[in-house]
Specification:
- The chain is 31% helix and 16% strand.
- The chain is α/β, with parallel strands linked by helices and 476 residues long.
- An eight-stranded mixed β-sheet has the order 8-5-9-1-10-15-4-16, sandwiched between helices. A two-stranded antiparallel ribbon has the order 2-3. It has a two-stranded antiparallel ribbon with strand order 6-7.
Length: 476
């Protein structure tokens, strides 16, 4: 297996000696320990401190239907509109699907973008366009550009933190055998701290975070013994490299032993009423953990909504061969509606709405015209194999996104689609515009930062796009 290469910002002057030492002996990502991750972060020059804003992204793997969520078309012909009606929200003129009654009550707390479009018609291609700005419409087994989460983690790195800066709760990383997100040439040290499993399970816990006091004491004794040997190594080190490495090993220890880290991930510290308000299920508790983490100082959080709560195929890919699209929405939207509305309400109630931006999206929308083919198998929201049932297919020509918090003007709809939700007819937005909006909120200079790729060539973090001006901050 080849050794990994870890670049620095274009034009940086990181010490090549230290970088070679840190790379020596690493044979692959599987060999990295938590301490190794922090050591590798030492190999790049710290960036200028950015404003400490944060983002929570809720990723709907498979692509949600705009018609069954945020852009219903109740007046469209029957072969397009589906069985569900549109309902009024608490903002005059804004209507969303009747399947989202809780979100309808708080439309003044979010903005809807109904006119984002791109050319990636497959799950990998669509995901890479939305998450990384890759303009190529083709599916790829692996991304060639780092996703925005890893870029933000790279630019906003802070070696003094006891908590990770990027946490993925049910990570956004794969679609079947395709990798749809990753750090690519940034190196694995900028991958997320991953939380896996169902946080609503009574036995759930995040390993290697916040050890009990007796465990911390035993670990401390071991580290004291180790430090005695390290003194000899430092005495022999004339470059200062080993002392720097030791600081990052200490940082890994901080995460392992920090009471703050342990508390941030511990949902049992929340009142039962709060946990129930989010929903005692995987999606609700994922978002509750996200809120706890941004309060504790984590700045980049991505969480994926998939699994059994979606229906038989465990994602939002509602082809009729997979599941009955309308039964699937009736099954999953109560959980989605409760969890997302609780997060938005909490962000505002706890005074996080100026700092934290919530984004809800998937890789694309769904075909407005309903298709009918036989099911490939029975299960939740799907008839027995051979049952002809309705579905909606991939549709990158239009998608809907939700934005809340972040100091933006809420209670608005940006863009519009035609009478069948097939194409934007007003304020078409591209994925570069979406990513520019994300970077601007995080205080990242997306117009000037370039990062060296594996070939040593500086690659801009964004090739095109401008922030969506309707989502610019209006208060501070």
């Amino acid at each position: 297996m080849q050794k990994l290469q870890f670049p620095a910002l274009s034009g940086s002057k990181s010490g090549s000696t230290r970088r070679r030492i840190l790379q020596a002996g690493l044979t692959g990502f599987s060999a990295l320990s938590m301490a190794d991750v922090f050591r590798l972060q030492a190999a790049v020059t710290p960036s200028k401190t950015a404003p400490r804003t944060a983002i929570i992204m809720v990723w709907l793997r498979g692509g949600a239907s705009q018609l069954e969520t945020f852009d219903p078309k109740p007046e469209a012909p029957s072969e397009f509109r589906g069985p569900y009606s549109a309902i009024d929200t608490n903002v005059p003129g804004i209507r969303i699907s009747e399947l989202l009654p809780n979100l309808a009550k708080i439309a003044d707390r979010y903005a809807l973008l109904r006119s984002i479009a791109h050319t990636g018609g497959g799950h990998p291609g669509g995901s890479l366009q939305v998450l990384a700005g890759d303009p190529d419409p083709q599916d790829k087994l692996m991304p060639v550009l780092p996703d925005w989460m890893s870029v933000a983690n790279y630019v906003r790195r802070d070696a003094a933190r006891s908590l990770p800066n990027y946490v993925a709760i049910n990570p956004v990383d794969r679609y079947d055998n395709f990798t749809i997100a990753g750090s690519t040439y940034l190196g694995p040290s900028f991958e997320p701290f991953a939380v896996v499993g169902d946080p609503s399970n009574p036995s759930f816990e995040v390993p290697n975070v916040g050890l009990a006091s007796d465990q911390r004491e035993r670990l401390g004794r071991r580290m004291q013994l180790k430090s005695g040997f390290d003194v000899l190594r430092r005495d022999l080190d004339t470059s200062g490299t080993l002392s720097a490495v030791d600081r990052f090993e200490t940082q890994a220890m901080n995460l392992l032993t920090s009471p703050q880290a342990g508390q941030a991930f511990d949902l049992k510290l929340e009142p039962a009423s709060v946990r129930e308000r989010y929903g005692m299920n995987a999606w609700g508790q994922q978002l509750l953990m996200a809120r706890r983490l941004v309060e504790a100082g984590v700045e980049i959080i991505a969480t994926e909504f998939d699994g059994p709560l979606c229906g038989r195929v465990q994602n939002w890919d509602d082809h009729s061969v997979n599941q009955h699209v309308f039964d699937a929405y009736k099954f999953r939207t109560p959980v989605f509606d409760q969890a997302v509305s609780a997060l938005i309400e909490d962000i505002y109630a706890r005074g996080l709405d100026q700092r934290v931006l919530v984004v809800v999206t998937g890789e694309f929308g769904r075909t407005p015209r309903i298709s009918y083919v036989p099911s490939s198998g029975g299960g939740v929201a799907s008839g027995p194999a051979g049952t002809v049932q309705p579905g909606r297919d991939h549709w990158p020509r239009v998608n809907s996104m939700l934005f809340a918090g972040g100091g933006i003007r809420t209670g608005q709809v940006i863009g519009a689609t035609d009478s069948k939700a097939e194409d934007p007819v007003e304020r078409r937005v591209g994925t570069g515009d979406f990513l520019a909006t994300i970077y601007k909120h995080l205080g990242i200079d997306y117009e000037h930062i370039a990062i060296q790729n594996f070939a040593g060539r500086p690659v801009p973090i964004l090739n095109s796009g401008a922030p969506i001006h309707e989502l610019q901050r209006v208060s501070s």
